[in-house]
């Protein structure tokens, strides 16, 4: 029995997942068109060789520590930092203890697209591209966001000397669209960990302790985790290895295996929508001062987009699998 076993699906979703990730693709597309935001298919970075039969980035020493998001639906921020920690480590040739835990609280306080009730890595990667990101030590996690608690962005902490990831190091991101299993497999196998949506509300997932999750599982993808590898069990079950943000007391010390290759959106919706950052250490802009505003998205600023989240949850963005805007490197 796990610590989440006595909660209903709704209670659990409201306290441990991004419960704001609800809506419809149709509502989102119409609303964005009214703002003049272009709706384009996402850019998918190509890979020129087949992925290996198995991959484990944890064993290769480029995955950061397991964290706990607490009673804040900030999984998108944790998936962003978890993915970026690994891609930055790969670019910098870092391993294990040299990987610096990045700050989720900076994203919650300073990025208009991040909150305790939802968000997307596409928005947070865009923010980091322009503003950089400091460490957990400099900007500690508080399990709350500025929109709810009127807590302003602590800009005095975001000096160039305090930033681990300088502005410009993240040059963009790739979004992997719904059901694109082959691209997801290649991205994880050849490029590094990938943030992905998943249904984290059902008992099969929230009460997981060991083995491979093979169902029953829904496709209400209110949660975002990091895929850090994949493989196959001795009895032939193919799986994704995921890193969660519910502490080391959940699952197998914070990790889980989810069946892969099941078709469509995948087991628990794991192949619904995924992202990974493009990192170029040589692209760092060390003299750029962090701003409190994300960069422009289409003809309207992200601040304008952020202003309508009270009417339309960021979950609409999460469900718009093939129309979310992507940024080329």
From TrEMBL:
Name of the protein in question: Peptidase C1A papain C-terminal domain-containing protein
Domain Peptidase C1A papain C-terminal residues, every copy: 51-278
Keywords: Zymogen
GO molecular function: cysteine-type peptidase activity
InterPro entries, A to Z: Papain-like_cys_pep_sf, Peptidase_C1A, Peptidase_C1A_C, Peptidase_C1A_papain-like
One of the protein's GO biological processes: proteolysis
Protein family (similarity comment): Belongs to the peptidase C1 family.
Keyword Membrane: no
UniProt keyword Oxidoreductase, yes or no: no
Lineage start: Eukaryota, Sar, Alveolata, Perkinsozoa, Perkinsea
């Amino acid at each position: 029995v796990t610590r989440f076993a006595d909660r209903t699906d709704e209670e659990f979703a409201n306290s441990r997942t991004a419960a704001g990730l609800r809506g419809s693709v149709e509502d989102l597309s119409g609303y964005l068109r009214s703002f003049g935001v272009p709706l384009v298919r996402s850019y998918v970075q190509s890979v020129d060789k087949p992925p290996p039969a198995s991959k484990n980035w944890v064993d290769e020493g480029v995955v950061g520590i397991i964290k706990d998001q607490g009673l804040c639906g900030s999984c998108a921020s944790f998936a962003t930092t978890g993915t970026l920690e690994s891609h930055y480590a790969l670019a910098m040739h870092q391993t294990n203890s040299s990987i610096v835990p990045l700050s989720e609280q900076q994203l919650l306080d300073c990025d208009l697209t991040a909150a305790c009730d939802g968000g997307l890595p596409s928005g947070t990667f865009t923010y980091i591209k322009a503003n950089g990101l400091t460490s957990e030590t400099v900007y500690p996690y508080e399990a709350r966001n500025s929109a709810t608690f009127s807590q302003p962005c602590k800009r005095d902490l975001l000096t160039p000397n305090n930033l681990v990831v300088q502005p410009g190091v993240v040059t963009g991101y790739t979004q992997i669209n719904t059901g694109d299993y082959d691209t997801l497999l290649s991205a994880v196998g050849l490029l590094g960990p990938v943030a992905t949506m998943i249904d984290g509300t059902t008992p099969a997932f929230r009460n997981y302790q060991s083995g491979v999750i093979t169902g029953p599982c829904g496709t209400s993808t209110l949660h975002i985790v990091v895929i850090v590898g994949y493989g196959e069990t001795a009895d032939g079950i193919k799986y994704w290895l995921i890193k969660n943000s519910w502490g080391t007391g959940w699952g197998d010390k914070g990790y889980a295996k989810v069946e892969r290759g099941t078709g469509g959106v995948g087991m628990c919706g794991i192949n619904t929508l995924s992202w990974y950052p493009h990192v170029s250490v040589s692209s760092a802009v060390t003299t750029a001062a962090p701003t409190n505003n994300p960069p422009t998205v289409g003809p309207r600023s992200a601040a304008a987009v952020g202003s309508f989240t009270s009417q339309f949850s960021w979950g609409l963005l999460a469900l718009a699998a093939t129309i979310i805007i992507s940024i080329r490197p």
